[in-house]
């Protein structure tokens, strides 16, 4: 599945099959590769070209000509730097909390529950269960649960943990909460795949050498589960940074919580300022690519898939 | 005392984490029975009505969107599964030039935020002058599903014992016969898993769809647009139905897989 893509342990590095050279390979590869070139690679180039477009002289809204207007980038950064900062800040916070919630859960499923395969598979089904219900409805459910009239908010107010005029929805808290919730399965699954293979004898060896449980965890368990941690954090961070559902005003966000995705959407679909939307997309993509390439450098391209 | 606390801490924590994951699902399910009129926000009383007359609301707009999503998901799944399976076989079985570039090209769509994929395709359709409709949605969905199919099927191809196909060839099976009678049936579980994943990804996709759908409605898009004025309980009904079907499918696959493993274990 998706998480296997980022988990270097997923692909066995030794290849038992002697690979042949044959024209069949070309026949098998060409249609799919051409498709991706046409509908993935060219659109990215298209996006790059659009990001440098200049408004047409005496043109209507939404009319642009190809140019090399690099000022587009300066303009979007000066206009939208809070959105850019929020995108990466919120995504980072959500990744951190998702890791905090997922690691013990994945550890329990992958290590402690090994003796009970049925419990293990039941828990895994529950981890992926949120995928089977609409992402938007899940997020809306939290919005209703956190609305001002809701039981949760009323109780918090009754206990004076929340001011009488305070809201939960529309705040940075609720956006980060939503992002964390929505991407927990993406964090838990790759963690589970590495922890499930964790050789417990290493932990025993640590105990035998009089290391404290905490020390064993820090020096043995964490390093051995690093592939899962890397895969999980990437799989959470990337979609979280680009997400605009959680931060949307109709969902968990407010005017002060808009992220890059929201302004890309608004510029593209509402304001028809295509170059601004494209420039923001390119910035987002570049940052993600830098992060991913650091990871690729560590593990090589063969392990990507 | 300290020992028993440590022993119970992790299971209790895990149970709570799973419970946390279930909260919005339970909420959506419960509110599908809400006797609400237009917006489904406050509890008005219990009714089976929404389940029995799902399509009656707003002249069937929910069901129209739901049907579109099913159709788009089906077409995109067939296209992506075909293209992706072919690539997966080629990657595991054959040597070819530009191998690492191919891996990178297959990996990148999964590492690209959806909003970038959506905006990129929309920019391309705009510059070429293609009107956005059902076709552009299907083209977009097929694109982002291919990589996931490759990853899923590739694992299956890699675990396939080449000796089985060799045996087929030794028995004078033609290349086509060997593929149809040996390779394909053995790959089928992987291909089906990939198809299910593709369908799930396509069905629940909102962001890429929103950029490339024009006036066409899909189920997630319908929810997004109605979010501002309140979502009818019928949407909850449809989502709950999908959820129940998906859970049944997954549990069936798990149980039959476990039974198969047990049979194989007995044989050896």
TrEMBL record, chain A:
<dbReference type="GO" id="GO:0055085">
    <property type="term" value="P:transmembrane transport"/>
</dbReference>
<keyword id="KW-0472">Membrane</keyword>
<feature type="domain" description="ABC transmembrane type-1">
    <location>
        <begin position="84"/>
        <end position="295"/>
    </location>
</feature>
<feature type="transmembrane region" description="Helical">
    <location>
        <begin position="220"/>
        <end position="242"/>
    </location>
</feature>
<keyword id="KW-0813">Transport</keyword>
<keyword id="KW-1133">Transmembrane helix</keyword>
<dbReference type="InterPro" id="IPR035906">
    <property type="entry name" value="MetI-like_sf"/>
</dbReference>
<dbReference type="Pfam" id="PF00528">
    <property type="entry name" value="BPD_transp_1"/>
</dbReference>
<dbReference type="GO" id="GO:0005886">
    <property type="term" value="C:plasma membrane"/>
</dbReference>
<protein>
    <submittedName>
        <fullName>ABC transporter permease</fullName>
    </submittedName>
</protein>
<feature type="transmembrane region" description="Helical">
    <location>
        <begin position="24"/>
        <end position="49"/>
    </location>
</feature>
<feature type="transmembrane region" description="Helical">
    <location>
        <begin position="171"/>
        <end position="192"/>
    </location>
</feature>
<feature type="transmembrane region" description="Helical">
    <location>
        <begin position="88"/>
        <end position="110"/>
    </location>
</feature>
<feature type="transmembrane region" description="Helical">
    <location>
        <begin position="276"/>
        <end position="296"/>
    </location>
</feature>
<keyword id="KW-0812">Transmembrane</keyword>
<comment type="similarity">
    <text>Belongs to the binding-protein-dependent transport system permease family. CysTW subfamily.</text>
</comment>
<keyword id="KW-1003">Cell membrane</keyword>
<feature type="transmembrane region" description="Helical">
    <location>
        <begin position="122"/>
        <end position="141"/>
    </location>
</feature>
<dbReference type="InterPro" id="IPR000515">
    <property type="entry name" value="MetI-like"/>
</dbReference>
